[in-house]
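Morning run. Coffee first, then this:
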Amino acid sequence: MAGIALPLLGIVASLVVGMDRDDASPTVAAPPSSSASSDSVDPASSEEPEPTATTTTPASDDKSAAPPLDPPDSPLPSGSGGSASKVDLAPPQGHGPARESSWGLVPAPCTNYEQQLIDLDTGLSRVEKEDNGRIEEPGGAELHYWPDSCTGGGDYRLRGVPNTRVGLLRADDPHTAEQCRKVSNTGLPPLNLNDSETTEQAGFVIGAAICSVTTEGAVAMATIDHINEGGFAGENTASGTLYVWPKVS
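And here it is:
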């Protein structure tokens, strides 16, 4: 019995040692077949790339971009004066450089019984008692703005003072001192500034000018830059820039 048991124990021991060696041996994975590596495709790589959102920066944020152009037919800035920009300031023969000031017509209410006299050598005006259009003392004035009847609106009339050289330079005429001297011989008949049809026919509009060879021999151009309808006591007012080329003695 003892002789049989010893060989059996040796066989069992050999089996146990063999099993331990198999457990300790690393397991080697079979290499992938060539067909599997060529036929298999990575799902992520087969998908189309998603489009990348592009952010467009507005042109206004680009400091190097050119500024937007003004729209066509943009109005001019208020109060710029249409005629002043096209006046030729070259003095006529026998006259010095132009002096620049302002002039205007602002009638008093008829109840004040006043008339206005404007000196185009200086642009200054004064008032005196109204006497049915008669002037007591011109005092060097060239323009007369007086109430005709004081019976209602539109009573005031504008005219050149008698025995003076005053005329109206139309808006489309050359605004030169020489042209102004020529039209000063045409006269300025009484104008009702509240009658727009009459004043437009006469040429008393924005852009035109009143011209005179003054009592001091100067050439004066009073541009009509503003006309305010019903501006004071229901009467129209007018104003602008006065250019005076003094006579050289």
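Residues 115 and 146 are 4 Å apart (CA to CA). Good start to the day.
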